[in-house]
Amino acid sequence: MNELPQTDAGAALAEALFARFGEHLAVPPELEGMPELLQIATWSTHRSWSQQPVSAELIRLLAACALSAPSKSFLQQADIVEVRDAAQRERVQALVPSMPWMSQAPALLVFCGNGRRFRRLFERAGQPFTNEHLDGLFNPAIDGALVMMNFMRAAAAVGMVCCPISVLRDQAQALADILRMPPHVFPIAGLCVGFPAQAQSVNPRLGLQATVQIDRYPQTSHGLQSVVGDAAADATMDAAVDAYDQRYMAVRSARLPADAVTAKPPMSWSQEKLRQYAQAQRQDWGEFLRTQGFDTR
Ligand SMILES: Cc1cc2nc3c(=O)[nH]c(=O)nc-3n(C[C@H](O)[C@H](O)[C@H](O)COP(=O)(O)O)c2cc1C
Questions:
Q1: Residue having the nearest C-alpha atom to atom 6 of ligand 1
Q2: H/E run at residue 113
Q3: Nearest CA to ligand 1 atom 18
Q4: Are 99 and 165 in contact (CB under 8 A)?
Q5: Which residue's CA is the nearest one to ligand 1's atom 10?
Q6: Distance 111 CA to ligand 1 centre (A)
Q7: Fewer CB atoms < 10 Å away: N or C end of the chain?
């Protein structure tokens, strides 16, 4: 964790948040927990790893910290599968040959939502399960995501880095078969874990004017919040995305050698996402969840 004196840590935090959001945020110098805030603000996904090994004990310790996350209705519907055995890792990695940083990572985990335990309580009590609807899928998905985020925070606290791998869900059924997932258990994402090979620059995010609303979403031309595709609300959002695109491209250009920028200027975030999602992806996900027993209506 960063050991800067308090005022320096505050300045570093303000600088990191400016780099991330393009906004000067007030950082009270007396604020507690500045090093932890700085660590959160400078988060970066890593895809290369040092040679430093990661022990099974450390993974178990981090898993225990991660599973201390809050849980919707205290249902505890999140699981972690550590893929430790070499042959088992081979099987999982073979599902995502396009991402070699997965096979190179010292440790690989799969975070899952688990609706099975909750349903078993009803089975064992001989009672009908009365909550088979979409919320029964959201709850374990949210619990699992919180546990995964908690794991990444815990890993960062001990100097480790991570890369989530949701592309594993492209092969959800095969992954479920390999990991022998029971009914009502589903993968949220894989997580590569290790120590960093190198420092990593942070990716700017959408400005807070796009993602933090005060009291309510912006006024629409109809004065109704619920109007979908309202021109005035969309224009506000478009302007925020346009401003972000400019900032994003400036950061990307600054990272490239000058000749590379001239030859092929970096794409904006909007262009990248339009290209990335031009093809339909993971269309069988709903079918997979229904096969696992969820009612997705
Ligand atoms: C749920 C989730 C799934 C992700 N899946 C992948 C993945 O399959 N492969 C990958 O290389 N990165 C993956 N990422 C990492 C994102 O690409 C990364 O967070 C994003 O590009 C922003 O970069 P940053 O985290 O360094 O700020 C995933 C991130 C999240 C939160």
A1: 165
A2: strand 107-114
A3: 45
A4: yes
A5: 165
A6: 14
A7: C
Describe the strand order of the beta sheet including 78-82 as a list of residue ranges.
Answer: 78-82, 107-114, 185-194, 161-165
Q: How many CB atoms lie within 10 A of CB 178?
A: 18
Which stretch of DSSP H or E encloses residue 174?
helix 172-178
Domains of the chain: 6-41 (no CATH), 56-200+282-291 (3.40.109.10), 208-222+232-266 (no CATH)
Residue 223 clears pLDDT 70, i.e. is over it = no
Tell me the HSE value of 283 on the side-chain side, using a 13 A CA sphere: 3
For 226-261, what is each residue's pLDDT tens digit? 555 678 888 889 999 999 999 999 999 988 887 777
Centre of ligand 1 to C-alpha 189, Å, is: 10
3-class DSSP assignment, residue 72: helix
Alpha carbons 58 and 63: distance in angstroms, whole number: 8
Q: Which residue shows structure tokens 């290369």?
A: 48
* pLDDT, greater one: 235 or 70: 70
Q: Quote the tokens at residue 148.
A: 């995964």
DSSP string, 46-59: ---B-S----HHHH
User: Long-range CB contacts (< 8 A, 24+ apart) of 267-271?
Assistant: 269/241, 269/244, 269/245, 270/241, 270/245, 271/245
- The pTM of this model reads 0.94
